[in-house]
Amino acid sequence: MNYSKNDNQIISPLPDNAWFTASGPLSIPLTNGYLFRSILQTDNDVLKGLIGSLLHLHAGEIVSADILNPIELGKSIDDKTYILDIKVLFNNNSIVHLEMQVINHHDWPERSLSYLCRSFDQLKQGKAYQTAQAVIQIGLLDFTLFPEHPEFYATYQLLNVKNYTKYSDKLRLSVLDLTQTELATEEDRLYRIDRWAALFKATTWEELKMLAENNSDITSASATVYRLSQDEQIRMQCEAR
Is 48 in contact with 60 (CB distance < 8 Å)? Predict the structure, then answer.
């Protein structure tokens, strides 16, 4: 298991299989934004596995994933400065934003576009426009964004409205609807996106154990959840969110 080497790391060491002894309801839902960030910041294997699945990549195509906006886990964060999204430099050639959103504030399209555009506007003076890194915004939503067009995993890009010619592949928006797992396509299941959705929607340790069978990424994620849930400071921050 590959844990973050962040100097601020406060997670106490526990045996990797300690979580197998846990049972009953999870004390904190995995859709909790602070716990979601904590899992991905603590366990780089899980971060790479999740992004790889969402981008339809195989293990050999995943080189690195480095969080560019880490926080000090467990430390009290003012609501004005609390960062919900996770900004990742992926494979050293693209920026990936990840965000868990439970409550529908009816502003997700505008909010996601804001993140996308701010990250794309990254060129330093004198650099060629062609060198701009691709930016991908991925929202994991616990609600249906467009009720009239429900979809489990949807991706949006800039296209010609008449002939659908792609304008650029450097801007992309994806939405994973955690409430529509039954609409997962064969391709979604091939890349185990449905398994990730089930992980985040799990409510008991028994569910996590079932999902972890023959899935090293979810096994690692479950062990990390257990470690995090044992830390009082992190539990307090999760409850505060």
Answer: no
